Amino acid sequence: MNTISVMIVGVGGQGTLLASKVLGQALVSMDYDVKVSEVHGMSQRGGSVVTYVRYGDEVHSPIVDLGQADYMLAFEPLEAARYLPYLKKDGVIITNTRETMPMPVITGAAAYPENIVEKLKARANVVALDAMQLALEAGNAKAVNMVLMGVLASRMDLPEDVWQAALTKQVPAKFLELNRRAFALGQAQKGV
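The chain above was modelled as a monomer; its predicted structure follows.
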């Protein structure tokens, strides 16, 4: 099989790293060669965070180059726009529509760009949803990561039991049911 590249992008504290661990765990259990690389900007201060997950029969590098990502999971629309050049022409962006204001916007030094999702849709295949609302329905706003993972899972050819086992292995037991609910709500968004 060809190497498939997934980028998970967001800002510090949104759960991008847990999402990449769940994805990596699911893929490893299917005997794929999996490479994961994490890039932390100023993640502790709400800065950009990107994780690369690449899998296939034989993967030589964990890094996703420009124009190479098959999927992009974006926890925030501006992060999707920032990393758009990394997406393949036929790649898919799965993005949360809730905006997280970066520090320059908070301080008034810059304005948050308007109509980001519409601009993304003009250039890529985009699945846009209010993952925050679904996370709240699941029981906690911090479950946005698993809502987005559920959407991704609905577009990948991995068995349900593989995903559930990955969740069990990577998510702390006290948060497992919440994350399962969020994941299921994401999976149910196939038509978005």
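The mean pLDDT is 91.
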